[in-house]
Amino acid sequence: MRKNLTAKQLIERDWKFPTGHRLGYQGFVSEMKAKRQEQLEAWSLRRPMANFEVNDYLAAYQNYPPEEFSEPYSVPDVAYATHLNSMQKKYLSRFKNVRRAWSRVLRFLPEAMHSGDRLRVLEMSTAHGATLEVLRHFGHDVVGNDFSNDGLSSRVGGGTPLRQVNSDIPVENVNEADWPYKPIIDSLGLDVRLFDAGKLPYPFDAAEFDVVLCFDALEHYCHPKDWMKIVDEFVRISKKTVVVRINPIQRHLIPDQAYTPYVQKFYQAMLEYSKSGFRCIVTEAESNQPLYFKLMKISDK
């Protein structure tokens, strides 16, 4: 039913049922407590559980987004007929977006939730900005990046995922004001810079950020043979930490010997990363593939 609703109807539904639950935020908390009990029972019986998903992480750590995030996006009416109708509908729910982002920070950058240090963080391809919202909640200085690509020409062979890094993209009528997430980002008061992440160098100074994050986006910037060039740029502008999570290889690309072997080389290159004092300290697999890598600066060499 929800997939047939318009953007306006979906956000209006969020106002009626905060957190997507009929009992609002307290209903969500009760649901998490029940899930926590299910986990404890499964653990005591040594019963195998399905792969952890967003709510499973929140319940296991009993660490939930606060109620302030249950308030839906507040955007001007004109945005419904323009920007928001071009967005994927699953990204119109603020609490769902925050819940996913909260889980990612909990898993991949827990020190940002508990450290007393104020970090300057850049998230590449931030979209609706939920990760920035979460990190700002914990007192950090946040900046986002994205790219207004609605005007990408059909002449881009295979799209940006197959281009070489620094190659020009034929564009037609790209207008930053038409970036789909603009009304949401404006309503949240977040600092998001629009530029093509497949073009180097980025418009930032060396070591300008403490942390650079890139979730499920690297594969959209360029061909995997050039992914390490992008990672090197993340390291250039970071002082402490770089977190990268890629999407699973698309099924139609797995047999492609001009693509998949380069992804596998990327796995190994990230595992053995050793530049500017940065080393790989954590890797994690999902969907039977290595998808998550965390680099940290552990020396000055």
Automatic annotation (TrEMBL):
MF GO annotations: methyltransferase activity
The reply on keyword Methyltransferase is: yes
The biological processes this protein is annotated with in GO are: methylation
| SUPFAM superfamilies named among the record's database cross-references | S-adenosyl-L-methionine-dependent methyltransferases (SSF53335)
- The UniProt transmembrane annotation reads none
Tell me if Methyltransferase is a UniProt keyword of this record.
Answer: yes
Superkingdom per UniProt: Bacteria
Q: Which InterPro entries match?
A: SAM-dependent_MTases_sf
Q: What is this protein called?
A: Methyltransferase family protein
Organism lineage string: Bacteria, Pseudomonadati, Pseudomonadota, Alphaproteobacteria, Rhodobacterales
